[in-house]
Every structure is written in C-alpha cells, then in structure tokens.
Amino acid sequence: PDRRLNKHIKLFVVILVAVLVLLIVATVSFSLNVSKNSESHTDSSVNANGNVIFQGDEDLYGMRDASGNTIIDAKWEQLRFLDTEYLSAVTDTAGGRRVGVLDSSGNIVAPFVYQDVQVLGSSYYMATFSGNDKIVIYDSTFRVAETMTADTCSLKEDVLTLTKGNDQFQFAVNDYGLTLQSVALSRSFGEQSFTATLEHADAALLTPQEWIHTADLLQSLLTMMSTGDFSGLDKLTDQSHEEAIPSAVLQPGQSLTQTEPDVLLHAETSDQQEPILTWQASVSLQTSESDSARKAMSVTMAKSQQEVWVITELQLS
Question: By three-state DSSP, how is residue 30 classified?
C-alpha cells in the first residue's frame, strides 16, 4: 500500500509540475501577445480619431476607420500618421522609394519626391527632398508656406530659422503664416568675403529669393571692381542705369583691393511704394603701385521695368 501511495504521489507531483509549466508558458505567451499588440497599436498606427493603419496582402499598408471600414486601400510600402489629418506614405517610383503625403481620405496632397516628412511645431511640416536633402516647408493645409528650398531648418519659440548656403532667414510663426523678420547674407569674392545684415528695416519687403539675388549682384559688382573687368556689367543693371555705374568710377590703374567684412544693408520704399536697397561698406582702392585710398562705397538697387532687381547707382566718396 505504501508503494502504491508513493506512486500516486509521484504521479500527482508530475502532473502538477506539468500543469504549472503549461500555465507559465501560457502566461508568457499571453504577455508577449499583449506586448506585441500594444506595440503595433502605438501612435504611429492609431490616431486620435480611432483610424487604424493595417497590413494587407503582400505586406502593403492601408487605413481603416474606427468602425473597421477601409478608407485607404492597402497599397503603400509604409504608412504613418503625421496627425489626425495627414499620413506620410512610401511607394516605389522610377527613381526608387519615395515619401509623399496623403490626407485622411487617401488623396495625395504632397508629391512622392521626398525622403522624409516630419511634423514641425503645431502647424507646419518639413519635407526633405530625396537626392539633394533640400527642405521645403508646408503649412497646416499642406500648401507650400515658403517657396525657398532650404539647406537646414529649425523651430524654436515660434521662430523658424532657414538657411540656404551661407544665408540665414528667420521667420515669425503666427496664425497668419510665416513673416520674414531678419536676414543675414554672406558672400565671397576672390580671397575676400563680406556679411550683410539688414539694419532697421522690414525684412518682409523682399522675399528670401530676392535677398539672395541682390546679394549675388553685389558679389558680382565687387568681383568686377577687384579685377577691373566690367564686361559683364550689363547683366547687373539695365540700359537706363548702366551709365550710372561706369568703369570710370575707378580711374585707370585703380582696383578694389579690400572690402570691410561688415556691410550695412538698408531697405526703404520709394514714392511709388517700390522697395529700394542701399548697401554701404568701407573699401580700399589701389591708386598706384605704392598708394591706396580708403573710400566709402554705396550701392543702390531697385527693380527694373521688367520687375528684375538691378544696380541703379554706385558711389565712392
């Protein structure tokens, strides 16, 4: 009897251990499933409206609403909520995989030419072009907020800073959009360089592209004054002002040898409410092999009748 009892006890113990093992395995499996489900239903796959990104056939993704109705067919390589209104999507194009943007109905609102699209603050989006890493800014309705493509972008305390080359532009972010607040422009010519900062003027008088173009004009003019070659002067001005910037400003044998790195830039409006720019700098002119003279240079720019920025006056005093 004792042997039979011992056998029964051993059998009971074995069964108990087996049950405990099965319970442990089931608990771990359940925990893993819960963890997996919670991972797949993070903010990237479910938005505040209850819409859900799902994986369909061929590992492609679509979106269903909270009731399970398919709103966006599963045809995207990747799909991610940007917010309740928009999703970034990835698809194969002739140039490779590209990112675009869909609205909550599946309509394409930004073309598939980007490598990445990110939320920028509460009302803007930053899209980075594939291939050249240039940046474009979209507003809350996915319209281009600033037509200039930038090299870098940062947003801090409602101030958006964009850079292009060595130029920097700062915008105030408000309910009406982006308002250009400050401009800093830098250029090099030969072994010299200058930085122009806008002084006591409304930066929004010009677009960033116009500021860039006018800085390029000054750079070209200073290059001509340094080399003495004014053959391309007609590309900097128009016929009505070309004689106001003659090569005779520099006497024979003279050349510009140095420009102070800090250039003052002023902007105002004419009687016709057209913007006028004035660039002021201190320069050195080589007057002979051994002598040089310090001059105050003033360069004025305005729009031509063809609405193109040109140099209208050059003064050395």
Answer: helix
Helices H / strands E in the chain, number of each = 2, 20
Burial per residue of 127-145, b for 16 or more beta-carbon CB atoms within 10 angstroms, e otherwise:
bbbbeeeebbbbeeebeeb
Q: What is the pLDDT of residues 124-173, one digit of tens each?
A: 999 999 999 999 999 999 999 999 999 999 999 899 999 999 999 999 99
Could you tell me the end-to-end alpha-carbon distance of the chain, in angstroms, rounded to an integer? 125
User: For residue 174, what is the enclosing H or E element?
Assistant: strand 167-174
Residues lower than pLDDT 70 in the chain: 1-44, 244, 246-253, 288-290
Kindly provide the b/e burial profile for residues 216-246, where b requires at least 16 CB atoms within 10 angstroms of the residue's own CB. ebbbbbbbbbbeeebeebeebbbeebbeebe
Q: Could you tell me the pTM of the whole model?
A: 0.80
Tokens of 210: 């116009």
pLDDT tens digits, 26-64: 554 444 443 333 333 334 689 998 999 999 988 999 999
Helices (H), 97-248: 208-227
Q: Is 282 exposed, middle or buried (0-12, 13-18, 19+ CB in 10 A)?
A: middle
Contact (Cβ atoms closer than 8 angstroms) between residue 86 and residue 97: no
Measured over the CA atoms of residue 14, residue 18, residue 21 and residue 23, the dihedral's sign is: negative
* Amino acid residing at 308: V
CA-based nearest residue to 308, from 172, 177, 213: 213
